[in-house]
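Q&A FORM
Asked by: J.P.
Topic: structure of DUF354 domain-containing protein

PROVIDED:
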Amino acid sequence: MVIKESVGRKKVHVWFDICHTPQYNFYKNLIIRLAEEGHLVYITVLNRGKMPLIIQKELIAYPTIKIYIIGKHRLVKWSAIIDANLIRIVKLFLWSLNKRIDISYSNAFLSALIGKVRDFPTFTFDDDPQTLAFKPKMWFSKISHYCLYELPPGYTLSSKVKVLPVLKEWAYLAPNVFVPDMKFLDKYKLKPKEYFFVREVSVGTVNYAGQSAGAVMDIASKIPQDKKVLFSLEDKSIKDMYPKDWILLEEPVEGIHSLIYYSCALISSGDSMAREAALLGVPSYYLGIRYDMPANYAASRLGVLHNRKSMDFEEWIECFKANLSYKKEQENIRGTINRLFIDINEYMYSFVNELEKRRE
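REPLIED BY: S.T.
REPLY: Here is the structure written out as tokens.
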């Protein structure tokens, strides 16, 4: 949707710092809206996997969006600390020195620190309660937001921390921004609900510290043989260790959320995609270890998300040996979630809108 420029308003210079593909998905609709209104949008991207390629491909049509690849992540834990944080903060600061920046958005604290030094507001958004009391984020952010749906028991909040009644995936999966399209199934010769969507993440990151590799590999033989499998594998170097008849996806994957929406179920060793499926009304099973993360708990209450603590995988997979239709239930789940959640895109946009009005 193209939004007409507001007459008489000065355009804002907005900076987004993006370190992970789910973060890009979270900000994408806001980025496009701002670009369509004529605002100058800076995006700094961590060189991690196929993320830079995905962002450049999807945003190439917008001349007011400027993309910079700064820093790298080698998908091992030490690189997350050294390359993606310590070295990158210096590179980001040097990059920012000749830029006019009016406001910034990020999930991390690096841009917030630079904003504090250079005197522009930064709004951070996260869904990991382990960082609720993370001092640098609280010190340097204008407001530190957490998309958790509700405050977990036992937590107290600083005046600069706000829990929002939404999960971050809703920024790109809400009915007003996402409409599934069956045309994306044609490339893989698939029909709705006849296949599983399976995701295996690399565990060489801070988020997956303590999680064993190959969770999907361990359950591959238990997936019904009469079902096709769409397979998203972060580390393609180990593809030969998985069933040869699985359909391996190559990033960037066009229409990935339509592919998830029309699957009969999703299995993932990473929690982001498991939550996405749950919010799309698709039964999902999370093979990882972040069972009690509040965002995952909320997704399991609102959607259909299970893990090893809530149900054995063997019991869960039995449900899909018959061809069951649950289209009505799927849309009912999405409708209920839509009534309970705020419009997170409008909320984030409000900060730029307020800044514009103050300048009139």
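FOLLOW-UP: The two ends are 25 Å apart (CA to CA).
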